Amino acid sequence: ELAARLAEDTSAGALADGTPVALLANIGSPDDAERVAPAAVEGVGLFRTEVMFLDRTTAPTREEQAREYARVLRALGGRKVVVRTLDAGADKPLAFADQAEEENPALGVRGYRLVRTVPHLLDTQLAALADAARETGVEPWVMAPMVSTPAEARDFAAAARSHGLTTVGVMVEVPAAALRARAILAEVDFVSMGTNDLAQYTMATDRLCGALGDLIDRWQPAVLDLVAATAAAAGEAGKPAGVCGESAADPAMAVVLAGLGVTSLSMSATAVPAVRFALAAHTREQARAVADAALGAADATTAREAAVAAMDAEV
Length: 315
Ligand code: PEP
Ligand code: MG
Known about the structure:
Layout: H1 2-8, E1 22-27, H2 30-36, E2 43-48, H3 62-75, E3 80-84, H4 119-136, E4 141-144, H5 150-162, E5 167-172, H6 175-179, H7 181-185, E6 190-193, H8 195-202, H9 221-237, E7 241-243, H10 251-259, E8 264-267, H11 272-280, H12 284-295, H13 300-314
Parallel strand pairs: 1-2, 1-8, 2-3, 3-4, 4-5, 5-6, 6-7, 7-8
Helix pairs in contact: 1-11, 2-3, 3-4, 8-9, 10-11, 10-12, 12-13
The structure holds phosphoenolpyruvate (PEP) and magnesium ion (MG).
């Protein structure tokens, strides 16, 4: 019954004092877009475009891509859509990306780095996104994955803007990008933290390695420190900083993230109602105290316990 009541709540995400925290969905295809559109989400915070092309042997053409992107923009009917450019890598090989064998694929030519080896893939994708924007009259936000330096952010932004795309960002999922978030934010309009990879690279722990699950726990204080630094830099720059990794779907973590100043949370659409409910129970000041409790902990287990205890103390 509670679940039914939560599912009916279509209000925009916000803390108890009215501070907005946009609640967005993660998708991987136009079909996903059509599925999440009726849900009470404020848009799409992560469209993983590579998912559509995982079984392709030849590169999708500009026209093919534009058709798919237009379907997504139309399905969301003008709501915000953050499109991520192709993120091929160890866990997501694209046959047409001509990737060489690598000793350490997670540390190799992946994500935005493909611009070094197959630059036409990014150029064609940005052109297709611009086509879809013109055709639908909806301007997508575009962002690049696996950006490590301000120079990469600058080059990506220049490429996207040269195609007429106006809202350009990068993912912060490499510790170097989090540590230099201020310089990165000087180059782009927004950042979105990918906490799955940020945890993997911060903890030097393969995200697919179940035996090391405790090390890659989303509550690791070292990972929270990098999220805090990134959100603070975005706050100073007056630019949006979202989270689109699995962390965003955990209601207690969502309160921590909001307390750190994260402005949007993107997750599986089914996770949205519980996150909306948790956020609505805490003011910005209370969320900040919950975040401080987690950041002050010595390890992941006590960070989560401290955050949950601080939440319980406040409601
Ligand atoms: C992430 O790394 O947190 C992320 C959202 O991207 P992906 O899971 O697709 O690598
Ligand atoms: Mg990632």
